[in-house]
Amino acid sequence: MMRAVVCESWRPFEELELKEVPAPAMRPGAVRIRIEAVGVSFATQLVVQGKYQRQPPRPFSPGTEIAGTVIEAAPGVDIAPGTRVFAVLDWGGMAEEAVADAIHVVPLPDELPLDAAVSMPISYPTAGASLLWRTDVTEGDWVLVHGAAGGVGLAGVEIAKAMGARVIARAGAAKHALLRDRGADVVLDSAEPFRDAVMQATGGQGCMAVLDVLGGDDFDPSLRCLREGGTLVTIGYAGGHIPTVPANILLLKNIAVAGLNWGAYVGWSPGDNRQLYARRVRALWGQLVEWWQQGKLRPEVHARFPLAQFREAMAEVAARRSVGRVVLKPQE
């Protein structure tokens, strides 16, 4: 038996319960992980209410980003018990143990901390795939990052700098010091209009890429911040509504809008293509871990909570107080 946060029927996150449940069954091609940290994400609130595009079979434990230690491996899996790892799950992370597909389990070098590694299964590869796979950013180009103090936004700032780009980061004023520390060349207040400031910072040239986790009212002026050949990558709609694209501006400015759904690469979309994309996904994780070892990435943990305080952890995320990630510690 193990402790787990359990969703038995669609309900608000704060109405979930901490229970003793059987440990998940082992399966072929998988490993069992003793979970030391699990990421708390805004989207989990939608998942447990049945409002997300994926609906796990109930009852289930939410949580998809974990870090911990392998305690069992299926026959033929070459990840030995005792290996420190991070992993992406379909669900089941807010628990003391989880079973994960070996293709989605990545060994973690000893010098890198486990709790910060919860940013690696989803947040960092979402930003990384957006910039490396969807744009033509090269050294010296300008990149605008919205929501730059959040989990994906902060990853975007660091990855753009690792690529040699110049970064304009937008966030609340209280979070500006951290963004400057992470290398942002220009930091803008997210409460203020930004188009003129971006064009001034880039010498009127505009940006080669915009990383947009917000959507909403920021979408149209973001398009107007792109230079010729630039791309806006849409990866979320925390700004309140899903925008529509004025197609004429794409034609007139020779710009593009691209989407990035990391879940499609790890088996969360209809058709489940996790095996098809496994090699590409693991190559990106390898690049991110290498940059982390080199000090180019510094995943930020804003706050840590024991498993029993899962409601308090989500409240920190929902109130948008966090800089970087909030994690639960299931062994505490």
TrEMBL record:
Boundaries of every Enoyl reductase (ER) domain copy: 11-328
Any one GO molecular function term: oxidoreductase activity
Pfam families: ADH_N (PF08240), ADH_zinc_N (PF00107)
InterPro entries registered for this protein in UniProt: ADH-like_C, ADH-like_N, ER, GroES-like_sf, NAD(P)-bd_dom_sf, Zn-ADH-like_protein
SMART domains for the chain: PKS_ER
Domain of life: Bacteria
UniProt-recorded name of the protein: NADPH:quinone oxidoreductase family protein
Organism this protein belongs to: Rhodovarius crocodyli
